[in-house]
Each structure stands twice: as C-alpha cells, then as structure tokens.
Amino acid sequence: MSVIDMTETTVVRMDWEEYRGYMDQCLADMKAVDYVPDYMIVLGRGGFYFGDYLTRKIPHLKDRTFWLLASSYYDGVSSLEKQNNIIRMSEHACTLNDLPLTELLRSANQNAPEQLNAIPKLRILICDDMCDGGRTAEFIFNHFYDKTSAVDFRFATVLCKPHSAFKPHFNGRMMPTNDWVRQPFEVDVD
Length: 190
Fold this sequence. Notes:
single chain, Rossmann fold, 6-stranded mixed sheet, 3-stranded mixed sheet, 5 helices, 11 strands
C-alpha cells in the first residue's frame, strides 16, 4: 500500500495482491462462524469484484442466482431514495422493494427434508467493496432486514473506514484512517 499526498486529500493506493488478501480475510471470517450464504446481493459498482471473487471461492454459489443492486450515497441523498436504479443479472430481477424472498423461501422449503419441523433460515449475503460513511450499507441492510425474519441477512465488505456509521458483519480490513482509498480496479479513464 502506498500513500500519496494530493494537496488537501491523502489517497491510499492498494494493489491487487493486498486487495485479494483482504477479500481472503473476509472469507476466512465468514468460515470461522460457519456462515455460508445461499444467495448474494452485490452492490455495484464497487462490489462487482468482491461478489465475483466470492462466487468463485464458495463452490455452491457458482451455479446460483445473484443480484446486482446499483447504489450510491453522495451529497446526503441515497440514489435508492431517488430511484430504483437496478440491473437485471439473471432470471430474477432485484429491486429494492421486490427481492423475490417468497420464491427463495419456497425453493429452500422444497430442498428441506420432510422430517424437519423447523426449516433453517435462508442466508443472504449483501456484499460491497467498502463501508465509507456507511449510509448506503445501513440503508440497504435495514431495508432487507425489516422485510422478513425468515432470512438471515449479513453484510460483508472488503474495507471499512473508522468513521463508518455501519459496521459490517464481515470485513477484510478496518482501515486505520478515513483517507481516500484508491482500490486496484479504479483506473483513470480519459
């Protein structure tokens, strides 16, 4: 990691090797508490790489649907409060107000042994690259968490800043400062 002082803003640059190490740490934290998601909601744009990484590392997720939810929180207003800016990734569409929880629960029930009286909660992981201020993560997590008690929602990030209002369940690295982080997938486009 290198630190670059840019007039008034300090930028922390991260390379791919370091970033993969933080993604591995987040995955190790999930394994340590035996949390294996059944499905994932990936927050875009930053969560793309982390979501892809997790689908390659958690074998049964390779063949499962995951949803991409485009979101951001800048200037005190969440884009989700302005509009449903959603991208369809597969046969299921994810909107903030219409995640197909009923269908997922029905699918989980069909796979449960008949002798079980209590069906385990469906596990859905919401993942993003970073909790900066934490407002987007908090808004999205609370929205889904309030929808149903039949789903075990958890939130995972690669990085989290100390001033974040939301602390994810799983995090690859708590940053020591609130400096701007330039992640390896961020490139200048002219």
